[in-house]
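Hey,
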Amino acid sequence: MITAGQIRAARALLSFDQRDLAERSGLSLPTIQRMEASEGVIRGNVDSLMKLIAGLDAAGIELIGEGATSSGGGRGVRLKG
């Protein structure tokens, strides 16, 4: 599950605005805005969520589930590399 806070944190780590994230994920700006406006876990169809994850991954962001640790030992959102 991905939270709106994780998306905002990932964008901050990358110095992306919502438009940058939309372009890199192949999603529309309104889709990114709706996702970030969600309370807690974001809402969206599976295809959009997969595009978002792929866009963040390609930019070097690893999203980590609540309570889980990454391969690098971090928690939450981690800049890979």
